[in-house]
Amino acid sequence: MRIILLGSPGAGKGSLAAEISKKYPVAHISTGDILRENVKNNTPLGVKARSFMESGGLVSDDIVIAMMEERLGRPDCEKGFILDGFPRTVSQAEALEEILEKAGMAISSTVLLDVDEDLVVRRLSGRRICRNCGAIYNVNTRPSSKGDRCEICGGELYQRDDDREDIVRQRLGVYYRETAPLISYFEKKRSFLRLKPNEKGDIVLEDFEKALGWRNDNA
Ligand code: ADP
Ligand code: ZN
Question: Does residue 37 belong to any structural domain of this protein?
Fold first, then answer.
């Protein structure tokens, strides 16, 4: 299975992709995580990406496309992958198609996490991440039972610099301008699915599995 997760910042792509890759044999590829890792290690890629990321803008297409071409060529992608945060522009979507075509592959499904803007703002401003294991919490919607420590590993929880409210607004503006047009781009193609959050505001693994026909509760 080769899946694209689409959705605004804070829609829950990262959490859902992590759950899917725990249960199914797919590589979870988050462009945001790869870029942050490069920034942290001061690689040439990280140096180029840093200022765009800090301001809440997009890293330029050529940089991200080259990075993803390399990533998708690694052996762990042969079993399948789930893309979290890529493509984010129409040019990136076109480039992805080319990369996959050259490798004789195709996307199996594109899944939109369709979450209202007010919920997304609440989510992003409350998001906290474990410095040690990367687990994602939310002080508004999904607090850790251990306060400012990770439930799983006891690691310290921190807020991403770009989850500050002014940068969040900037990121959402970029999403509606650059990335939302991808919805109509992918809607025209095969196997486009739209998931909405439940009453608690979550899109859970079970809903994803049902939408893809991976789960049959009548069995
Ligand atoms: P979110 O989806 O919550 O905004 P990400 O972790 O996916 O956060 O991305 C963080 C930042 O990394 C983005 O604001 C952007 O600067 C950069 N980034 C991630 N993916 C891409 C991409 N596909 N194209 C350009 N920039 C990207
Ligand atoms: Zn942890």
Answer: yes
Task: Give the chain's domain count.
Answer: 1
Cα–ligand 1 centroid distance for 32 (angstroms): 5
Helix (H) or strand (E) holding 65: helix 61-72
In this prediction, residue 106 carries a pLDDT of 93
Catalytic residue at 50?
no
Per the domain annotation, does 140 fall within a domain? no
User: Which of 36, 4, 8 is CA-nearest to residue 20?
Assistant: 4
Per residue in 186-213, pLDDT (tens digit) is: 999 879 999 999 988 889 999 999 999 8
Q: Quick check: is 218 in a domain?
A: no
173 located within any domain: no
Cβ of 127 below 6 Å from ligand 1: no
110 forms beta bridges with 4, 192
What pLDDT was estimated at residue 98? 97
Q: Name the closest ligand to CA 53.
A: 1
* CB-based contacts of 41, cutoff 8 Å, min separation 6: none
Total residue count of the chain as it appears in this document? 219
| pLDDT value at residue 219 | 46
Check which CATH number belongs to the domain holding 199 and give it: 3.40.50.300
Residues of the chain where predicted confidence (pLDDT) is lower than 50: 219
Question: What's the gap in Å between 65 CA and the centre of ligand 1?
Answer: 13
